[in-house]
C-alpha cells in the first residue's frame, strides 16, 4: 500500500494563535509529508508494502528502525492533528468524571501532563493512554515511539519535537504545552476511549 499525506482536518490558520499558520504549514506540509514519503520509500518491495499502517508499526519495532520511525511518525502526526480543533471542544461531564477519578482533578491531570511535556528530554510525544488494566495514564515517549507498542491505547497526544513549536514559542516548550489545552478536541479523545474496546465498565458507564 502506498501511503498518502492526509489533509489537515482544518485550515492552516484555524489553530491560531496557539499554533501559527507558518508552523502548521511546515509541520504538516514538510515534516509530516517527509515521514510519509520516506515510509513509502523504505517499504517499497518489502512485505510491509501489503500491511496497514498500524500493523507496520507493530511489526517493525526493534527490527527495521527506518521503517518503524517513519511509520510511527506518520501515524502519530495524523493522530495529533485530530486531537486539536479550532477553539477547542468542550469536555463532556462523562469524560470530566473519568479524568477526575483517574488523576484527582482536571487541573492535576493537566499539571502532570504539562510536567511530562517539560521534562521529556529531547524529541518525543506526550500521550494520554489507557493502559493494559484499562486505567488512564500519561506517558512521555521519546522520538517516534507510540504506546500501541506497549499494548496501550493512545487517547490523546502532544507533539513536543522542536519543529512543533519553535517558530511560535522558541525554546518555551512549557508555554506551548499550556496553550495546547485551548485547542484540545475532547470529543475526539472521548471517542477514542469509547472505541478502545478495553474500557473499564465503570469508565464506560461514566461516558454514557
Ligand atoms: Fe511533529
Question: Strands, helices and their partners?
Answer:
Blueprint: H1 21-43, H2 53-60, H3 65-82, H4 93-103, H5 106-119, E1 124-130, E2 136-142, E3 153-159, H6 166-169, H7 173-180, H8 186-194, H9 201-207
Antiparallel strand pairs: 1-2, 1-3
Helix pairs in contact: 1-3, 2-3, 4-9, 5-7
Fe (ii) ion binds next to helix 1.
Structure, described:
The chain has 208 residues and is mainly alpha-helical. 49% of the residues lie in helices and 10% in strands. A hairpin with a 5-residue loop joins β1 (124-130) and β2 (136-142). α4 packs antiparallel against α9. The termini are far apart. The protein binds fe (ii) ion. Fe (ii) ion binds at residues 27, 31, 77, 159, 161, 163-164.
* Overall pLDDT score: 94
Ligand set? fe (ii) ion
Overall tally of domains: 2
- CATH architecture level-2 label of the largest domain: 3-Layer(bab) Sandwich
Helical/strand content category: mainly alpha
Amino acid at each position: 500500500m502506498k501511503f498518502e499525506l492526509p489533509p489537515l482536518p482544518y485550515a492552516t490558520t484555524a489553530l491560531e494563535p496557539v499554533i501559527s499558520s507558518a508552523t502548521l504549514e511546515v509541520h504538516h506540509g514538510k515534516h509530516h509529508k517527509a515521514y510519509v514519503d520516506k515510509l513509502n520509500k523504505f517499504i517499497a518491495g518489502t512485505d510491509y508494502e501489503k500491511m496497514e499502517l498500524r500493523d507496520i508499526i507493530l511489526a517493525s519495532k526493534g527490527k527495521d528502525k527506518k521503517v518503524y520511525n517513519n511509520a510511527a511518525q506518520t501515524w502519530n502526526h495524523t493522530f495529533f492533528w485530530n486531537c486539536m480543533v479550532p477553539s477547542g471542544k468542550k469536555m463532556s461531564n462523562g469524560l470530566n468524571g473519568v479524568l477526575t477519578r483517574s488523576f484527582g482533578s482536571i487541573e492535576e491531570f493537566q499539571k502532570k501532563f504539562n510536567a511530562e511535556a517539560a521534562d521529556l528530554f529531547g524529541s518525543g510525544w506526550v500521550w494520554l493512554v489507557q493502559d493494559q488494566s484499562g486505567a488512564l495514564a500519561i506517558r512521555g515517549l521519546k522520538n517516534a515511539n507510540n504506546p500501541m507498542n506497549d499494548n496501550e491505547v493512545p487517547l490523546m497526544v502532544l507533539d513536543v519535537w522542536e519543529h512543533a513549536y519553535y517558530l511560535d514559542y522558541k525554546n518555551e516548550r512549557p508555554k506551548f504545552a499550556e496553550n495546547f489545552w485551548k485547542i484540545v478536541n475532547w470529543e475526539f479523545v472521548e471517542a477514542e476511549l469509547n472505541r478502545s474496546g478495553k474500557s473499564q465498565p465503570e469508565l464506560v458507564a461514566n461516558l454514557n
